[in-house]
Design goal:
This protein starts with 7 loop residues before the first helix and ends in a 12-residue tail after the last strand. Helices cover about 50% and strands about 10% of the residues. It has about 425 residues and is α+β, with helices and mostly antiparallel strands. The chain is globular.
Length: about 425
């Protein structure tokens, strides 16, 4: 049995309305369920949308060699880093980095994460004293970039490097609108990529010359040392891995934390609940804070869409799938499936603290993907997010002066527009509403 396909007239209507891709995918899921196909243009080959948790697990976890990644849209920035690498090269690169994000590797970075969070908290205390307005999204990017820079180099982020690395966010924001032609795409972002390259070159040179930073050796030193025994770790690949870790290590976390504060502005009771769960530093408080992060990631997953390509024919949930078929696994829509998540549009962190409230199926919640290609930095991202929130939540409450104008669906799902805010004089146990 073939996969059911969306009526072409509905696709044509979507085109005429100038809809976003997410609107078309939502329509496919509403009309066809957890597995459905659509043709983006007349005569185009069908693309299969996968949101059913069993099918999600089949594609991502059970048969990753059958459903492969092809050219990643971020390749223009990250090159052949682990995010875009495939095949044997990806396996080697993943194996080298894996140990850095689990167990002993994570403990090495906990002090650096805490230092970055404390520096952010100090800035917020200053904002509260002076009444100075600040941009919430910019603050979260600054924190996340400082954190990953400390992890990579052993150095805190300096203002000059921070300014140059603004080019990373500029390229990421541009990715969805880049020309399909690779040469034209590279030309469109050449100036920003050159700025990133210059920072990477200086960092690699410093890692080779100075050894460790004041906080000890970082991830970059692991890559530099790998080059001594692994010829594939050329200067170019070290640069690509460094930039990949910069992109993956700060862009998604900053976006998640920005969304979280926007959601708390609408749901101040969620902040109160987390702070009332237990005293500062207690396991109960930590679980409640983690639930804030998880519920934010449910609504706005770090990887909102995961493209795959069927390298061979297969049967997917009873449907025949020819080799060469393109698929889109969409955590964003799986997380908003009312059959899995009752009242899915409502922000409710207690889904992750109350037994039986969260779906038990492993394919129902995948903000970082699942299977062998799940995000390496999952534990790092959760740790830095909860560490920052443990510092900030008990303090003054941000009051937004402007709301983001729209949601942008690019490499991440991000709020687009101003997030200017001031810190209210009230403490977090008496939160000010978002206006």
């Amino acid at each position: 049995m073939g996969i059911p396909e969306l009526d072409p007239d509905l696709v044509a209507r979507w085109h005429a309305d100038g809809g976003e891709l997410v609107d078309l995918l939502t329509l496919v899921r509403e009309r066809l369920g957890g597995i459905g196909a659509f043709r983006a243009a007349p005569g185009a080959a069908p693309t299969v949308l996968v949101t059913d948790p069993d099918a999600v697990r089949h594609v991502l976890a059970h048969h990753p060699d059958r459903y492969v990644k092809r050219s990643h849209r971020a390749r223009v920035l990250v090159g052949d880093g682990v995010l875009s690498a495939t095949g044997d090269a990806w396996q080697r690169q993943r194996r080298l980095l894996q140990s850095q994000f689990t167990g002993t590797g994570m403990r090495r970075y906990e002090g650096r994460i805490t230092a970055a969070a404390q520096e952010t908290a100090a800035r917020w205390r200053a904002y509260a004293r002076t009444g100075e307005a600040f941009d919430l999204g910019a603050e979260m990017r600054r924190f996340a970039l400082d954190t990953i820079w400390r992890a990579l180099t052993g150095h805190p982020l300096d203002p000059g490097t921070e300014s140059e690395l603004a080019a990373v966010a500029a390229v990421v924001a541009t990715l969805p609108s880049l020309p399909a032609d690779k040469v034209a795409a590279r030309a469109a972002v050449a100036a920003d990529v050159a700025r990133v390259d210059a920072v990477a070159e200086r960092a690699v040179r410093a890692a080779r010359d100075d050894g460790a930073g004041p906080d000890g050796p970082g991830l970059l030193h692991v890559l530099v040392e790998a080059a001594e025994s692994r010829p594939e770790y050329t200067d170019r690949l070290i640069r690509d891995e460094l930039v990949t870790l910069l992109v993956a290590g700060h862009e998604t976390t900053a976006t998640t934390l920005t969304w979280l504060y926007l959601l708390l502005g609408r749901h101040p009771e969620a902040r109160e609940h987390a702070l009332a769960a237990g005293p500062d530093g207690s396991p109960e408080r930590q679980r409640a804070v983690q639930a804030l992060v998880h519920e934010t990631l449910r609504l706005y997953p770090s990887a909102w869409i995961l493209p795959r390509h069927a390298a061979e024919p297969d049967t997917l949930a009873g449907h025949e799938l020819p080799a060469g078929t393109d698929l889109l696994v969409c955590p964003y829509l799986t997380h908003r499936d009312p059959g899995l998540w009752p009242d899915p549009e409502h922000f409710d962190p207690t889904r992750f603290t109350t037994p039986g409230r969260r779906p038990g199926h492993p394919g129902a919640y995948l903000p970082f993907g699942i299977g062998p290609r799940a995000c390496l930095g999952l534990q790092f991202a959760l740790r830095e997010s909860t560490t920052l929130l443990e510092q900030l939540l008990p303090g003054p409450v941000p009051r937004l002066l402007a709301r983001p104008e729209r949601t942008a669906y690019g490499l991440t799902v991000r709020p687009e527009g101003s997030t200017a805010a001031v810190l209210a004089a009230e403490r977090a146990d008496c939160p000010a509403p978002m206006r």
